[in-house]
Amino acid sequence: MAGQDQIRPHRDDAEPDDAPDAPAAPSTQARDAEVDALLDEIDDVLESNAEQFVRGFVQKGGQ
Amino acid sequence: MTVRRVMGIETEYGILQPGRPLANPMLLSSHVVAVHAATRESGRAKARWDYDDEDPLHDARGFHLQRASAHPSLLTDDPAKPAPSGDGPQELARASVEEYEDPGAANVILTNGARLYVDHAHPEYSSPEVTNPRDAVLWDRAGERVMLASVRALASTSALPDVALYKNNVDGKGATYGMHENYLVERAVPWADLAARLIPFLVTRQVYTGAGRVGLGQRGEQAGFQLSQRADYMEAEIGLETTLRRPIVNTRDEPHADPERWRRLHVIIGDATMLEVATYLRLGTTSLVLWLIERAVAEGGAGGAGGALAAVDRLALRDPVQAVHLISHDVTLTTRVELVDGRQLTALEVQRAYLDAVRVALEHAGAELDDQTRDVLDRWDSVLTRLANDPASCAREVEWLAKLRLLEGMRRRDRLPWDHPRLAAVDLQWSDLRPERGLYHRLAAAGAVERLVAEEDVARAELHPPRDTRAYFRGEAVARYGPEISAASWDSVVFDVVGSPTLQRVPMRDPLRGTAAHVEALLDRSPDASSLLAHLGAG
């Protein structure tokens, strides 16, 4: 599993907020501080090897 | 004429052994159930599921009851008869040999009246019957605590595998597993009319009930985000199947006796939701639409319920299955779907038409609204208005928006394309039941989502049944007389009293009998099962 998906989030906190964003759903256009704080927290708990975690998430069908 | 009716939620949880993707999910699921039985129900774990019912459809019987919802079908309505069933206990012969118990058929009847068992390859929690959407939220959340307790117990037992449980509906590889809602509906409504009038509502409600999903298509073939977990798996309008060609409206589990008054509606299109408001609105709005349909049919004629029924009938969709997919795939909520009458409406407009029709019918009925009905109406109106004008303001109530808010934040910060595995991981880990791992729980802890029920009430609901349905008798019987119960089901409890020549089966045919009001004093007067049975009339 050497080093796969070790993309670490890069924090561009210093960057001004007017960085060009891809067109987003209208619901999420505004950058908000609450989300930034949540993302920092989530970085600490999100599976470190996301690709392996996602690939291994295999379920049998149910109803 | 309210949001109140007998209802319940069944949830199949996603299950993993962390780090071991090939672990047998049936075995893991049975550990989840068995460890609950061992740690929480010690001494009263012997009760099996009672498949003995009068249902003449013998072949279908086991399957029927296994899938049975929180509120079946057999209803009597004779207030003169003693609680909880209207009938006294029935004598049953004891099996001459010990009945074979398939260890894979792990099954526990909980003291809160719910059923915890293995369905297919998932642990399932079927909530007790409740009478209103807020209680549905409470006992649904209680189910999360039941499941989490098993996760913790397995984690602390070195001889047993660790598991992680997810309250979601897809694995992103093509598999889906269900969250099913059950509603008691008046039998007088013809099935075809009920389905036809409900389908446009069920197709469009995902704009506020969807849990959100990363990936488009059953296997996530296309990158992107959609409103609903289940949408891409809906392949038919109406049908018997729940595992193949899944229908929007499911016809399984017709009541098997006294069908004159009620039927059980089994809705399989919905997503399991972590957000309490999403669960509340899903059950509350659906119950109101069912009330409208019942009311209109009761009044008869095209002008039923002050003309509301005619408005609903005009909402018939040209292609409901395609509409489910189209609406789910459009996060801007502007996609128009074609109606049979030629109009092109957005999902929000269809929902608004249902809300207006419900209001017309309520006004026509002229009755005072209870608080919860008014609250559901106000929230429904508010969320439709804000989804159209300011969807970001719904991120505390609407799950797909809460999830999308995080995902878009991460995409922007880290410049990730929609097919990046970190985004898929966020989607999956969103519903991990462990508060230290689950991303929903991070939002809840940060106050970023609205809560409807107090945690101490959820903790109580984990152990205690609703007081206003027959789940009260079931749960209290298990709590008080567990060692003397040999089996139970939605509509029966079978007692095995030492010294008695036969088993005693107490039928509970009416979901609204066996309540605390009916039986609490009786239970308090009965220190053991034999005195209870004597009081119930077995003598």
From TrEMBL, chain A:
UniProt note: domains: The N-terminal unstructured half of Pup provides a signal required to initiate unfolding and degradation by the proteasome but is not needed for pupylation, while the C-terminal helical half of Pup interacts with ARC to target proteins to the proteasome.
Keywords: Isopeptide bond, Ubl conjugation pathway
Source taxon at top rank: Bacteria
Function field: Protein modifier that is covalently attached to lysine residues of substrate proteins, thereby targeting them for proteasomal degradation. The tagging system is termed pupylation.
Similarity comment: Belongs to the prokaryotic ubiquitin-like protein family.
Any Pfam family: Pup
Covalent cross-link Isoglutamyl lysine isopeptide (Gln-Lys) (interchain with K-? in acceptor proteins), where: Q63
Post-translational modification summary for this protein: Is modified by deamidation of its C-terminal glutamine to glutamate by the deamidase Dop, a prerequisite to the subsequent pupylation process.
Subunit organization: Strongly interacts with the proteasome-associated ATPase ARC through a hydrophobic interface; the interacting region of Pup lies in its C-terminal half. There is one Pup binding site per ARC hexamer ring.
Segments of this protein annotated with the region Disordered: 1-32
Sites of Deamidated glutamine modification: Q63
Gene expressing this chain: pup
Biological or metabolic pathway of the protein: Protein degradation; proteasomal Pup-dependent pathway
NCBIfam families from the UniProt entry: pupylate_cterm
Protein name: Prokaryotic ubiquitin-like protein Pup
Automatic annotation (TrEMBL), chain B:
Keywords: Hydrolase
Keyword Hydrolase: yes
Domain of life assignment: Bacteria
Renumbered residue ranges of the record's region Disordered: 71-96
Entry's EC annotation: 3.5.1.119
InterPro entries hit by this protein: Pup_deamidase, Pup_ligase/deamidase
Record GO terms (molecular function): hydrolase activity
Classification via NCBIfam families: depupylase_Dop
The keyword Hydrolase belongs to this UniProt entry's keyword annotation: yes
Entry protein name: Depupylase/deamidase Dop
Record-stated family: Belongs to the Pup ligase/Pup deamidase family. Pup deamidase subfamily.
